[in-house]
Write a structure and sequence with these properties.
The structure is a single chain. With about 240 residues, the chain is an alpha+beta fold. The protein has two domains: about 10-120; about 130-235, Glucose Permease (Domain IIA), CATH 2.70.70. The protein is about 40% helix and about 30% strand. It is built from two helices and twelve strands. It has helices spanning about 30-120, 230-235; strands at about 15-20, 25-30, 130-135, 145, 150-155, 160-165, 170-180, 180-190, 200, 205-210, 215-220, 225. The chain starts with 12 loop residues before the first strand and ends with a helix. This is M23 family metallopeptidase.
Protein backbone atom coordinates (compact mmCIF):
# COMPACT_ATOMS: atom_id res chain seq x y z
CA UNK A 1 0.00 0.00 0.00
CA UNK A 2 1.06 3.41 -0.74
CA UNK A 3 1.55 5.60 2.21
CA UNK A 4 -0.53 8.68 2.68
CA UNK A 5 0.98 11.85 1.53
CA UNK A 6 0.69 14.72 3.92
CA UNK A 7 -0.37 17.93 2.36
CA UNK A 8 1.62 20.93 3.31
CA UNK A 9 -0.15 24.26 3.60
CA UNK A 10 1.56 27.18 2.05
CA UNK A 11 2.43 29.74 4.59
CA UNK A 12 2.60 33.40 3.84
CA UNK A 13 4.25 36.19 5.63
CA UNK A 14 3.96 39.96 5.17
CA UNK A 15 7.17 41.87 5.77
CA UNK A 16 7.21 45.64 6.15
CA UNK A 17 10.61 47.29 5.68
CA UNK A 18 11.15 50.77 7.04
CA UNK A 19 14.32 52.82 6.63
CA UNK A 20 15.05 55.48 9.16
CA UNK A 21 16.62 58.81 8.41
CA UNK A 22 20.00 57.53 9.62
CA UNK A 23 19.99 54.71 7.11
CA UNK A 24 19.04 51.98 9.53
CA UNK A 25 16.53 49.48 8.22
CA UNK A 26 13.83 47.93 10.35
CA UNK A 27 11.73 44.98 9.36
CA UNK A 28 8.22 44.28 10.62
CA UNK A 29 6.86 40.83 10.06
CA UNK A 30 3.11 40.16 9.93
CA UNK A 31 2.25 36.51 10.21
CA UNK A 32 -0.29 34.72 8.06
CA UNK A 33 -2.70 34.31 10.97
CA UNK A 34 -2.66 38.02 11.66
CA UNK A 35 -3.26 38.74 7.99
CA UNK A 36 -6.10 36.22 7.85
CA UNK A 37 -7.63 37.72 11.00
CA UNK A 38 -7.28 41.20 9.53
CA UNK A 39 -8.84 40.01 6.28
CA UNK A 40 -11.70 38.40 8.20
CA UNK A 41 -12.25 41.58 10.17
CA UNK A 42 -12.16 43.62 6.97
CA UNK A 43 -14.66 41.22 5.36
CA UNK A 44 -16.99 41.43 8.33
CA UNK A 45 -16.69 45.24 8.35
CA UNK A 46 -17.34 45.38 4.60
CA UNK A 47 -20.35 43.08 4.90
CA UNK A 48 -21.63 45.21 7.77
CA UNK A 49 -21.17 48.42 5.82
CA UNK A 50 -22.85 46.97 2.74
CA UNK A 51 -25.70 45.54 4.81
CA UNK A 52 -26.21 48.87 6.55
CA UNK A 53 -26.18 50.64 3.19
CA UNK A 54 -28.75 48.21 1.82
CA UNK A 55 -30.96 48.49 4.91
CA UNK A 56 -30.64 52.29 4.90
CA UNK A 57 -31.56 52.34 1.20
CA UNK A 58 -34.61 50.19 1.89
CA UNK A 59 -35.60 52.40 4.84
CA UNK A 60 -35.12 55.55 2.76
CA UNK A 61 -37.22 54.02 -0.04
CA UNK A 62 -39.97 53.11 2.40
CA UNK A 63 -39.82 56.58 3.94
CA UNK A 64 -40.14 58.16 0.50
CA UNK A 65 -43.13 55.95 -0.28
CA UNK A 66 -44.70 56.91 3.06
CA UNK A 67 -44.07 60.60 2.35
CA UNK A 68 -45.67 60.23 -1.10
CA UNK A 69 -48.68 58.41 0.38
CA UNK A 70 -49.04 61.04 3.09
CA UNK A 71 -48.79 63.80 0.48
CA UNK A 72 -51.52 62.14 -1.59
CA UNK A 73 -53.67 61.75 1.54
CA UNK A 74 -53.10 65.41 2.47
CA UNK A 75 -54.07 66.51 -1.05
CA UNK A 76 -57.19 64.34 -0.97
CA UNK A 77 -58.16 65.72 2.44
CA UNK A 78 -57.52 69.26 1.22
CA UNK A 79 -59.78 68.71 -1.79
CA UNK A 80 -62.42 67.11 0.45
CA UNK A 81 -62.17 70.00 2.92
CA UNK A 82 -62.62 72.52 0.09
CA UNK A 83 -65.62 70.57 -1.21
CA UNK A 84 -67.13 70.44 2.29
CA UNK A 85 -66.47 74.16 2.69
CA UNK A 86 -68.29 74.89 -0.55
CA UNK A 87 -71.14 72.58 0.48
CA UNK A 88 -71.31 74.24 3.90
CA UNK A 89 -71.46 77.66 2.24
CA UNK A 90 -74.24 76.46 -0.04
CA UNK A 91 -76.16 74.95 2.88
CA UNK A 92 -75.68 78.14 4.87
CA UNK A 93 -77.13 80.18 2.01
CA UNK A 94 -80.03 77.75 1.69
CA UNK A 95 -80.68 77.86 5.43
CA UNK A 96 -80.61 81.66 5.36
CA UNK A 97 -83.00 81.70 2.39
CA UNK A 98 -85.24 79.14 4.09
CA UNK A 99 -85.19 81.16 7.29
CA UNK A 100 -86.14 84.27 5.36
CA UNK A 101 -88.92 82.35 3.61
CA UNK A 102 -90.20 81.00 6.93
CA UNK A 103 -90.01 84.49 8.43
CA UNK A 104 -91.88 85.99 5.48
CA UNK A 105 -94.45 83.20 5.66
CA UNK A 106 -94.89 83.76 9.39
CA UNK A 107 -95.33 87.50 8.80
CA UNK A 108 -97.85 86.80 6.03
CA UNK A 109 -99.73 84.36 8.27
CA UNK A 110 -99.69 86.89 11.09
CA UNK A 111 -101.01 89.54 8.73
CA UNK A 112 -103.74 87.18 7.52
CA UNK A 113 -104.59 86.22 11.09
CA UNK A 114 -104.70 89.88 12.01
CA UNK A 115 -107.04 90.63 9.12
CA UNK A 116 -109.21 87.67 10.07
CA UNK A 117 -109.36 88.85 13.66
CA UNK A 118 -110.07 92.40 12.57
CA UNK A 119 -112.74 91.14 10.18
CA UNK A 120 -114.32 89.04 12.93
CA UNK A 121 -114.63 91.94 15.35
CA UNK A 122 -118.05 93.64 15.03
CA UNK A 123 -116.58 97.08 14.29
CA UNK A 124 -118.52 97.65 11.06
CA UNK A 125 -121.69 99.66 10.54
CA UNK A 126 -124.78 97.39 10.85
CA UNK A 127 -126.66 99.04 7.95
CA UNK A 128 -125.95 99.31 4.24
CA UNK A 129 -126.91 102.98 4.19
CA UNK A 130 -127.13 105.99 6.44
CA UNK A 131 -129.66 106.19 9.25
CA UNK A 132 -130.56 108.22 12.30
CA UNK A 133 -129.01 106.83 15.44
CA UNK A 134 -129.68 107.26 19.12
CA UNK A 135 -128.62 105.47 22.24
CA UNK A 136 -131.26 103.80 24.36
CA UNK A 137 -131.86 105.97 27.40
CA UNK A 138 -132.84 103.15 29.74
CA UNK A 139 -132.56 99.39 30.05
CA UNK A 140 -129.86 97.37 28.34
CA UNK A 141 -127.00 99.12 26.49
CA UNK A 142 -128.24 99.48 22.91
CA UNK A 143 -128.10 101.78 19.89
CA UNK A 144 -131.38 102.31 18.00
CA UNK A 145 -131.18 103.08 14.28
CA UNK A 146 -134.01 104.55 12.17
CA UNK A 147 -133.37 103.41 8.61
CA UNK A 148 -135.11 104.25 5.32
CA UNK A 149 -136.92 101.80 3.06
CA UNK A 150 -134.62 99.64 0.94
CA UNK A 151 -131.76 99.76 3.44
CA UNK A 152 -130.32 96.42 4.52
CA UNK A 153 -129.38 95.35 8.03
CA UNK A 154 -125.93 93.75 7.64
CA UNK A 155 -123.42 91.98 9.87
CA UNK A 156 -120.78 94.21 11.43
CA UNK A 157 -118.19 91.41 11.37
CA UNK A 158 -117.64 87.82 10.22
CA UNK A 159 -119.02 85.06 12.42
CA UNK A 160 -121.54 82.29 12.91
CA UNK A 161 -125.26 82.69 13.42
CA UNK A 162 -125.70 81.63 17.02
CA UNK A 163 -129.49 82.03 17.15
CA UNK A 164 -132.57 83.42 15.34
CA UNK A 165 -135.33 83.99 17.92
CA UNK A 166 -138.51 85.94 18.43
CA UNK A 167 -138.10 89.29 20.16
CA UNK A 168 -140.87 90.89 22.26
CA UNK A 169 -140.04 94.48 21.29
CA UNK A 170 -138.63 94.23 17.76
CA UNK A 171 -140.10 91.00 16.38
CA UNK A 172 -136.92 89.04 15.63
CA UNK A 173 -133.51 88.85 17.23
CA UNK A 174 -130.43 87.51 15.47
CA UNK A 175 -127.23 86.81 17.46
CA UNK A 176 -123.91 86.51 15.59
CA UNK A 177 -120.97 84.90 17.40
CA UNK A 178 -117.64 86.47 16.34
CA UNK A 179 -115.42 84.36 18.56
CA UNK A 180 -113.25 85.43 21.49
CA UNK A 181 -116.37 85.82 23.62
CA UNK A 182 -117.87 88.56 21.43
CA UNK A 183 -121.40 88.60 19.89
CA UNK A 184 -123.39 91.19 17.99
CA UNK A 185 -127.20 91.33 18.33
CA UNK A 186 -129.62 92.64 15.69
CA UNK A 187 -133.26 93.29 16.70
CA UNK A 188 -135.67 94.05 13.85
CA UNK A 189 -139.24 93.25 12.79
CA UNK A 190 -138.25 92.12 9.27
CA UNK A 191 -137.97 88.63 7.80
CA UNK A 192 -134.65 87.03 8.81
CA UNK A 193 -132.49 86.04 5.83
CA UNK A 194 -130.11 83.72 7.72
CA UNK A 195 -130.40 80.47 9.64
CA UNK A 196 -128.92 79.28 12.90
CA UNK A 197 -125.46 77.69 12.49
CA UNK A 198 -124.75 79.53 9.25
CA UNK A 199 -121.25 81.02 8.83
CA UNK A 200 -121.40 84.46 7.27
CA UNK A 201 -119.01 87.25 6.39
CA UNK A 202 -118.90 90.91 7.24
CA UNK A 203 -121.62 92.90 5.46
CA UNK A 204 -123.91 89.88 5.01
CA UNK A 205 -127.60 90.87 4.77
CA UNK A 206 -129.71 89.90 7.78
CA UNK A 207 -132.91 91.93 7.12
CA UNK A 208 -134.24 94.14 4.38
CA UNK A 209 -135.79 97.34 5.77
CA UNK A 210 -139.32 98.23 4.69
CA UNK A 211 -141.89 100.73 5.92
CA UNK A 212 -142.93 98.36 8.73
CA UNK A 213 -139.47 97.54 10.13
CA UNK A 214 -137.41 100.73 10.00
CA UNK A 215 -136.16 100.40 13.58
CA UNK A 216 -133.04 98.38 14.38
CA UNK A 217 -131.91 97.70 17.91
CA UNK A 218 -128.17 96.98 17.84
CA UNK A 219 -126.25 95.51 20.78
CA UNK A 220 -122.78 94.07 21.58
CA UNK A 221 -122.19 91.34 24.13
CA UNK A 222 -118.68 90.59 25.35
CA UNK A 223 -117.87 87.76 27.76
CA UNK A 224 -121.62 87.36 28.43
CA UNK A 225 -121.98 91.03 29.38
CA UNK A 226 -123.78 93.66 27.28
CA UNK A 227 -121.53 96.67 26.68
CA UNK A 228 -121.93 100.01 24.94
CA UNK A 229 -122.03 99.32 21.14
CA UNK A 230 -120.53 102.75 20.47
CA UNK A 231 -117.17 101.40 21.74
CA UNK A 232 -117.03 99.17 18.65
CA UNK A 233 -118.76 101.53 16.24
CA UNK A 234 -116.24 104.24 17.04
CA UNK A 235 -113.43 101.77 16.24
CA UNK A 236 -115.08 100.93 12.94
Amino acid sequence: MKGKRSRKRNKYMFIVVKENSNGAVKKYTVSQKVMEAAAAILLVFTVGVVSKFVLDSIAIGNARKEIINQTITINDLTDENEALGALNSTLTDKIAALGETVSNKAEAEDAISQKIMEGALPTGYPLSGSADMEEALSGEPMVVFSAVNGTNVVTSGTGTVESVDADELYGTRIVIDHGNGCQSIYRNDGTPLVKEGQTIGKGYILFTVGKDNQKLGYQIRQNNQLIDPMLFLNNG
